[in-house]
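Example record

One chain of 434 residues, shown exactly as stored in the release files.
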Amino acid sequence: MASPMAGQAGCALRDLAVLRAALLRRKRSAAAQLTPRRWLNLQEYQSKKLMADHGVTVQRFFVADTANDALEAAKRLKAAEIVLKAQILAGGRGKGVFSSGLKGGVHLTKDPTVVGQLAQQMIGYNLTTKQTPKDGVKVKKVMVAEALNISRETYFAILMDRVCNGPVLVGSPEGGVDIEEVAAKSPELIFKEEIDIFEGVQDAQALKMAENLGFKGPLRQQAADQIKKLYNLFLKIDATQVEVNPFGETPEGQVVCFDAKINFDDNAEFRQKDVFAMDDKSENDPFENEAARYDLKYIGLDGNIACFVNGAGLAMATCDIIYLNGGKPANFLDLGGGVKEAQVYQAFKLLTADPKVEAILVNIFGGIVNCAIVANGITKACQELELKVPLVVRLEGTNVHEAQRILNESGLPITSASDLEDAAKKAVASVTKK
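Predicted structure tokens for this chain:
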């Protein structure tokens, strides 16, 4: 029989599972190659440095950008065994292949001199994994770390939970695997502690979670201390999630955060300058970087119908309805709120620069967005860029009648749509005719 605490934990994990599942569905249904950097996403060494700076126990490590630096780092560690990890923002590194011919982006060795040889075949070469584009991603840095044995693996996370309107601790003694699988097969092994945002993690709560994770004797207090430090990190950096898997113990009796995933609240960028300054955009799609210059959110897909939308939810719905009507979205472009004509113009410039785009679907629901501003931006872009692909526009909401008048009197070949379904059908039909 599942414990009440385990039953309550489902809500805390649901946001995590739903987001992952939704992205996977969209990747598969639209046959899309999504860029793995939609939001701020730090390299492994950056996340570990943040944890170490806040007193969280991680493996000792150095970062190197040349083979010689990697060799020197391995010697300085003076570790019994060393792990060398290529630093890219994609999973599956261990089974990846380098353009140099080296297999595996993660290597273990007891010989420091081997680290230099391996790093020479990593740095400057592309690493291809199941999560990278087919040509892979160029490796610019490697992490040289002390390899520690793990005698037991657990799972621990701190995340924001909509149900309790605040942070929760979620843990399981079953670590090292997907937590969604544990929740589905053994819900009694999922434990949750709701945290009062004003009071923070209490000693009793941290000790209870450590006990539920299976830490015994002196390790129980050590794990509780680590939990409290992780929560302090969570607050200090405005994280929305800190997920440690595995949160493990070593044969020597040490509790260590062996791997972590940290998600950040982008709305807190103004007060987290140092964290967001670590954002390395070199792995981004160039279109995404260009879009960011104008405060546009862009993700490239592999279809031929460009989507120009305001709001992430509406953007995803637009991508889905294009696919359901037999088409393929070429991108996910979110205009957001506070729209200016210049943004609309730059968005069109971005979309028309993509050679895959054979039609553009504009789907704007004006709440805080003024449809007339969007319409003016559309007409200006069409005229100055000499748009050569079909354009379907669906506008609804604030000042929509003025917007429709602007479009109708522009004399431009713009196809209007009455609703989203109508817009998707017309956009797909315009490509089919071609």
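Notes: Residues 1-12, 14-38 have pLDDT under 50 and may be disordered.
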